[in-house]
Amino acid sequence: MNNNDIVLRVEDIHKSFGGNEVLRGVSFDVRRGETKVFIGPSGTGKSTLLRCINQLTPPDRGTVWLDGEEVTNSGARINYFRQKIGMVFQNFFLFDHLTAVKNVELALLKVRGMGKAEAREKALTELRQVGLEDWADHYPAELSGGQAQRVSIARALAMDPDVILFDEPTSALDPELTREVLEVMKKLARNGMTMLVVTHEMGFACSVANEVLFMENGVVAEQGSPDLLLHDPRFTRMKDFIGRIDSRMDD
Amino acid sequence: MDVLPILLDWLPYLLSGIASTLGLVLAALGLGVLLGLPMALGQVYGARPVRWVVGIYVWFFRGLPILVLLFLFWFGIFPAIGLGELSAFVVGAVVLGLRGAAYQSQIFRGAIQSVGEGQMIAARSLGMSRLTAIRSVILPQAVRIALPGWSNEYPNILTDSAVCYAIGVVELLTITSRMVTQTHITMPIYLAAAGIFIVLNYGGLKLLHRLEKRIAIPGFGTGAM
Lengths: 251, 225
Hints:
heterodimer; A: alpha/beta; 6-stranded mixed beta sheet; B: mainly alpha; MetI-like fold; 79% helix; 0% strand
């Protein structure tokens, strides 16, 4: 991996909702093939940050660059950038009227203008990636939460994105289903997919993340390898936070 | 006084009356979808002036009795805009359709609004334009949600269509009234007319339910959302 190969650059992102400043200047670079994990208390703007990157929520200030091209203020070209920036949502947001395979191929047909046969083949390939080839013809209502989330990952993968944003991908799932989704994400990370992941799964963060960004009050409070943030005595805030959620889970 | 031979005698006219009634209904339903769906989209996604215009339209066509609308267009509006030559049938179908569009737009609007907002977000996140997202993601779901409510428009328009009698459309009620005038048999003939309306009503709803089943999708059932 070339260390200078920066695929995504986020500079000084600010976002307020009705006087409440959710993001107060967030900046970071993402190298190709890297997995960054965002951790932090609820309401610190982690999900908003992801939505600011693909402009689902346009930031008030700041710039996003993808492969050296400006994503912010890109007008209609935003639809091009969004193909390159995949997104996976907490509540899956699968297209409820379409089978799994059609969920994956829809954007290939309608956005990329791919032919039917080619799109179908690609969609099935992506479903195979997430282990759901046999479920291709099932509707979202017939899938478990874990399966639905894996289909939505396949849907994002199908566009051959430069980076995928995961917005609390396992928060709506019970532990068993969480594991199957995390396994898929680990595999993607191993295969060199660039990923930004908002999650509370510390185990995943420790085993996969190249870097953890601990966010608090709309800024990145601590940033470094998982090992560093967890064990270096100079870093305390993320450890405090994890201590709080651990003790809550012990109750 | 046996009514059956009389009905048989008049059968060709009765059938043409039924055809005319069904023609009114189909034309009105079609026009209603054609106008009602874009109006619903305008009301949900349109700019303020668009929403405003649709709102006034709906208020006007739902606010007046169907007979008043019919007279307004037949005697006033159409002649005033140079369409005085239109046949009573066309005027009847158009007025029923314009009025149906007002009702249907509200059925479609409700359906569009009940599609989860995540559907649009997911579509946009894949790079779809707003228009593509509406066409490929929102509308296919909205139509399925709307269909049970929309089906009710069929009996509504079917029964409303009888008022076209008042402007001289030769539909089912007009034919049966002529039979009454000529034969002086009243009740049996109007009962026969009622029977025919009921059969048309039942048959049409049956077909619509079959359509609902045909496009049903797991998790999307009738009224499930």
